[in-house]
Every structure is written in C-alpha cells, then in structure tokens.
Amino acid sequence: MARHLSNSLLLLGLMLVLVCGAYPAALWVIGQTLFPFEANGSLLQGPNGKAVGSLLIAQPFSRDEYFWPRPSAASYDAAASASSTLAPSNYLLRDRVARALGPIATYSRGPKKGQLVGPDIAAWFQADRYAGHPGIVAQWAEAHDGLARAWVSAEPAHGQFVEAWAAKHPAVVAQWVKDNPGRPRPTASDLAVVFFERFSRENPGRFPAQVVLRTPDGKVRTTVQPVSDGPDVASVFFDMWRHEHPDADLEAVPGDMVTTSGSGLDPHITLENARYQLDRVASTWARTTGRDPARIRQEIGWILEARAWAPLGGLVGEKLVNVLEVNLELRARYGAASR
Q1: What is the pTM (predicted TM-score) of this model?
Q2: Three-state SS for 217?
Q3: Helix (H) or strand (E) holding 210
Q4: Helix (H, G, I), strand (E, B) or coil at 13
Q5: pLDDT of 336 above 70
Q6: Cβ atoms of 145 and 192 closer than 8 Å
Q7: Tally: H helices and E strands in the chain
Q8: What angle do helix axes 145-154 and 156-168 make, rounded to 10 degrees?
Q9: How far is CA 57 from the centre of its chain?
Q10: CB 38 within 8 A of CB 31
C-alpha cells in the first residue's frame, strides 16, 4: 500500500513539474524567441514609445481625423466581448443601424447626388408632421417607448434634464402616478414617454440634445437644450424620414460600417469601408495641416493600399485594414489629434 501511494505521489509530482512548469516554460521560451510580438499581445506603440493598444482588439475612434471601427455591442470592452444577439426583426437593431446611417447617408443620384441627407431630415423634422399628424417626437416616443427610456438612461445629463422637467410639471407627474399606481415614485426613465409627449407639444420641431456651451469665464460645459437640426436629429429620426421618403435614392454603405462583429472587438474594417471614410479623413487632415486636399487624399489612399491584406494571402475574403495601425500612421505622418 505504501509503495502504491509513493508511486502515485511521485507520478503526481512529475506531472506537476511537466504540466505546470516545463510545458509553460517551453512555450514561453518559444514564444519570446520566435514570436515575441504576438506572444506579448501584439501591442502597438505610440510616438512616445508607450503601448497604445493591441492589433487584435478594436478601440473607439470618433474624431473626423481618424478612420472609425465597426460598431461594438460590447462598447469595445475586451472584458465584455459579445455580439448584440438582436434578431433582424428586433426594432432595436433597426434603430441602431438607422442611427449610424443618419449622419453619413448621401444621395446616389439626382441634383443632390453626393450630398448628405441630414439637412433634408432636419427640414422635414422642423415641419413637425409624420404620417399626416403633428408631433414627430411624441409619435417616436409612443411607438418606441424602449428607445425613449434608453435615451433617458444613456447619459446622466439626460436623466437630470428629465428630473428637472418633472420638478416643473408636478401635475403631469401626479397624473402619471395616478395612471400607474404600482410606481408611486417614478424614475426619470419611467417618465420618458410622458416627458417626450409634453416636450413635443411645448417644442414643436425640436429634440432635446446635448450641446457644448462656453461660459463667460471661458469654461466649457455640456447641457441639454432643444435643437432643430444636427447629428442627433439626423440619427434618431432617419428611420422615420426614410419611411416618408421611400423613393429617395441613397448611396449604399459597406455592411461593416453599421453591423457589429460577433465579438464586438473586431479591429479590422474592409478596405471598401475605409475608402468610404477617405473623403472625411482626408479633408479633415487637409484643414488641419493646411495642405492640398487632393494630395492628402492621395497619400492616405496609398497608406490604405499598403496596409490592406486579405486572409490566406489574398486567396479568400475581402481586403481588410487594421484601424489602429492606420490611425497611428496618420498621427505619425500628419500630427496628433484626440480620439
């Protein structure tokens, strides 16, 4: 019995040494010797020599100087990698895609070919009629109460704006409590629909949006105010505008501009997507550097072509570019800009 026990303990010790010591050590030596870049996370360094991100994980870029990545259902959080899991029939998916398209959609033909549809959405919105009835904002909130609630919860400033409104409209809140006795103390999110209904009545052709103001002492603060145009209007009401303008010929956009990847962390976009963004990126850098826009566009086009690659040496799939890699090259060539 003692011999069997000693043999078992010897085998256990040997396996611990091999599996928990020798094997990881061998992999570490091979990785650090033959594949040091990949073994250390495929990290890219900025101009100051510090790591700014990984080639394998997407980061959010929102400034016009840079190429933007695919949308992310995980908010680009590597610890929360996930897809949206929304079915094609889910209106939240349609709304997310519509919000992405609103500010960038352009006409594909006619006298306005190449122009953004945003100004036309704003003009239609300001008329404040949808399906023959007044109150576009109220109709939006009533038809999609989940979106109205999501707007209130999306930013602390939104919730504070609704709370301030509730304090000024105690009778409306009291009526809501009477109609919903199970919620004697409603939250800002609970009041979303009734808030938008009253807001629509008091501010026809306007929508509450965050605006940046400069105070007399030179400080900058963000507040919520009624607006009649801008990216918020184009984003939120693009889908409703499209329903009333089904014959408008709009330019198709690359699918990966408006769809998330399965992980929410895909660091690549298609070359087609990058080319679609090229005019915005090039014109912004041209203004920043004071150089010829055509020349800047040509140079960035060369960067994209040089960085583009396809799986299996180009045998399958579309050409891709790594967003972080390209944006770092833009920064190195033309100067720094905030993300």
Answers
A1: 0.77
A2: coil
A3: strand 207-214
A4: helix
A5: no
A6: yes
A7: 16, 8
A8: 110
A9: 15
A10: yes
